[in-house]
Structures are given as C-alpha cells and as structure tokens.
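Quick question: what would this complex look like in 3D?
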Amino acid sequence: MTVQLGLIKKDPSTVALQTTCAICSGFEMNVCQSTLQAEWAISGTKPIPIQQSTHIAPARRIICRDGDLHDAVPVICDGWAASIATLSDSSRQILSILLPGDIVSTALLFDSRGQYLVEAITDVRYRIFRRSELKPALFKRPDLLENLSKAWIEEKSRADQLIVDLGRRTADERIARLILNLVERLAKRGMARGEPIEMDFPLRQRHIADATGLTSVHVSKVLSEFRRGGLIKLRERSLTILDLGGFRRVANMR
Amino acid sequence: MTVQLGLIKKDPSTVALQTTCAICSGFEMNVCQSTLQAEWAISGTKPIPIQQSTHIAPARRIICRDGDLHDAVPVICDGWAASIATLSDSSRQILSILLPGDIVSTALLFDSRGQYLVEAITDVRYRIFRRSELKPALFKRPDLLENLSKAWIEEKSRADQLIVDLGRRTADERIARLILNLVERLAKRGMARGEPIEMDFPLRQRHIADATGLTSVHVSKVLSEFRRGGLIKLRERSLTILDLGGFRRVANMR
DNA sequence: CGCTTCATTGATCAATCTCAACTCGCGTGG
DNA sequence: CCACGCGAGTTGAGATTGATCAATGAAGCG
C-alpha cells in the first residue's frame, strides 16, 4: 500500500488505528499514514508520500531478523515486542522491549546493521516503512528530524540505563527496575491506570530473565519474594503495583 | 576562540593537531577547525564558523558532569577518557571508553540530558563545541548529518554489545572482549602496531572493572590467568596480544 | 485431549564478591 | 634525603549470589 498525499480509504478498524496512531505520533516519527493525514488537515502542510505496509504477527513469531532489514524500518502499532540478541549457545539478551508507538531502532533509519532480531511478545500489529524513502524525507524536514532526535536520545538513555543495571545491580533491583520502567512507559501511553496502578503485563518470566540477564528460575524466585512482600500482584498477564513506595525502594536502593 | 571561515593562526602545536585531527575527521563530525580549514582548501566549500575551545585535563580529572553540558559538546582530541555513571553507593559503571576522535556522546548534539560524567584516564586534550551552533549547522549540511548518523550507529551498536556482554557473558569473556574491542578501535586509528600486536594501554584495573561490571580484585585474578596462559603481556601501561587466536577464543566462546 | 511451554520449589554447585593482608612505586612534605 | 601516605596490584580465605539440575503441577494451544 502506498500513501499519496494522505488519501486513504477508510476501513473498519479506523477507530483502533486512530487510537494507537495518536500514541505513536506522540512518541515517534510522525510519518505514519494516519498522522500525516491529520497533520495535513491541521497545518495545510503537504504530507510526504511514504510507502508503508501494515502487518500482523502472532505472539512468539519473529517479526524480522538481520536479513529482513535491508530497506525496512518497522514501527510497532499495537502489542508488545522485543529486540533480542542471540548468542552462539542460544542464550538470549533482550536489548529493548518495544511498546506501541516504538520504532524498532532509530539507527535503522540510517543503516541496516542489526545483529539482533525482533520477536513478538503478544500478537503485534506493526508497519514497515522503507528507509530509502524515509531517510530523504527526514533530511528535508527539520521538524521530523527533531522528533527523531528525541526518540534517539530516549533510546540511548534507556540503553545506558540498562548497562548500569546489568553491570552494577542485584537481581532484585534489575527486575524491579525493569517493571518500573515499563510502568512508566505504559503510563505515558495511557496503558496503565488506577490506584493502585494496574496494567496488562504480557511478559513471561522468560522475557524478564532475558531482559535482566538472569535465569527464569531465579526470576520466579524473586517474583515470589516480591509477592510475599506485598509489593506487587502479578497473575493472568496482569500486574498491580500494591506498594509503589516499597517497590521503588527495592528498585533504587544500594 | 572563535573560528571564522577557517582563518586560523598557526601555533607551535600545529603538527600534533594535524595528526590527531586527521584521525578525528575520519571518525567523527568534521567540524573541527583544522578539518574545516582543510575541507575548505580542497572543496572550496565555505566552512561553517563554529565556536570551539581547546582544553587540557590531567589524568583522573573530571572533564565534565551533568551541569557542564548545557551548551557544550566535547570531543576528545588526544588521550583516553571514559563516560561513567555513578550510583548512590559510589560504585561506577563505565558506559564508554573514549579514544581520540570520539565525540563524548552523539546524543549531546541534540540535548544535554546526561546522567553521567566524563573523566580523563590519561592526560587528555579535548575541544568543546557549542551545541547551539553545531546543531543548526548539522541541519543545514546533509553531509555532516550523514557523518553524524555513522557515529551514532557505531555508538549504539557498541552500547548494545556491552548490554549483551554484561547480561550474558562470564568475567573472562567480558574482559577479553573489552580488550579486543579496544585493540580494534586503536588499530583503526593507527594506534596499535606490530606482530604480535602491541599498543599503549593506560587503563588501570579499576577502569577495566568499572567497564565490565566486575571488581578490580577479580579483574586482577583474570588478567593473571590470561598472562599465565600466555595470551597477553600487560605491564607498564603497555599491552601485547601474544596469542591472538587463543585470546579471541576466550572472548567469543559459549 | 495430548503436548508443549510456563511456573514453582528444593538441593547443590560455581562464579564472583568481600575482606584482609601485603607489596610496590610514586609523589610530597618535613 | 627520608618518611609517609596513597593508589595500584596481588593473593588467599570465606561468604554470597545466582546458576544449574531435577521433579512436579498448571496453563496454554493446536
């Protein structure tokens, strides 16, 4: 599907699209079809025609690996995914958990050197843009570039944070911080509500282990510990932070 | 000191400047005064006047911390430095070891949110550019932007690599990989020569520990192990890789 | 409904940390 | 010139964290 000047047919899922694309434009590149359309209506600026395609992947499916990224820049519209580095002994390290509105990696806008793969955690809807079109558009539009730089700083800052966590923190801290970071990111997207805070939490303990550099056995023990301490409730893919103060203390202390 | 149209007075250290700036322009932003001058001569393109100042810091001195970065983008001209995150218990994690030609962080070109400090490892000569001038220049010059994107991809890829190392590798592997990464980066700069490969290596074991998420006590033991195994020679701030194949094997295995 | 993946728990093991003592080289101030 | 203190490095003993192995039950999925 190619988008020209924002002229798009409505389809039955319009409402859902608008919801998630509203999230998306707040966080990322403003290049999505719906966004461009809206922008055109508001500002009168002529949107740049960017070829894009929408895809759906079921949970646990690989969305893309090295070879797939020659000209593709994927953006998560809906669902959770993870970018994962795999080692020769088949152990895995999650580099980043991708939430709706996240571009898989800002570096992909410029080059395709990715030593990792992207895997769906839940069912995922995502779009693929073509770098060969997106990149020139960026260079022409300082406002898009400004958005990009924000996404990039955010991405790098999270990577640095992860380095510190993996290098210098205990299992308890790593897990608590992973969860709190996700809570924060979800809250920004309106995906965490209530008092006490509550949200969908589709991560398996395997994912938590892969993200924190631990084994899933140990993750299970630590989570049980958290539950016993009345800090969180976590079951049936749903998470409640029962004692935010206490949990924060576990996450930051040392 | 402000550079206007590449008109600069020669000074006694011109030769040294040219040497390191040749390295620098190969790796980073091409905004340095010497580079701009040379570029002007070659291409006839009018260099952009960028205000910049040269500084010197002795080993172990902090080059900048959070607050210093409001409008400053430092680039290492000469010597080794490290960007370091410090935790509340005063333990430290090195995010990146900075070699001549490295910009401290490409994210600094867009924003000053840095939760870390930059510390000189050896005596360091560095330049500070002003973001308020550099950033607009970037947006006007696609070629500079292209250079920037390369530096950024490189930076992010190294960060991702470090995440995997800290999350999934043993002490031996982490240390060997740190050293091999440095060897590679130094070689690109012409700072590692010979057969077997030999180079200046000013890192203290403390730095290695801070970079690999280990304690310096354990680093000492692992290095002794490497020495006993005839893999490396490391003394008096000088490193020789005696058995490159064997050392690579230690670094990559699992 | 049968199979795979996920989660829990206990026992044991291994990697790394912590603590401590000692050496060495270096720079500083008396 | 010497004494001193400090940071860096080495080494050993013992403590701790988290990994590995194994067994079991529950949950998700075709």
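Answer marked as accepted. Residues 1-18 of chain B have pLDDT under 50 and may be disordered.
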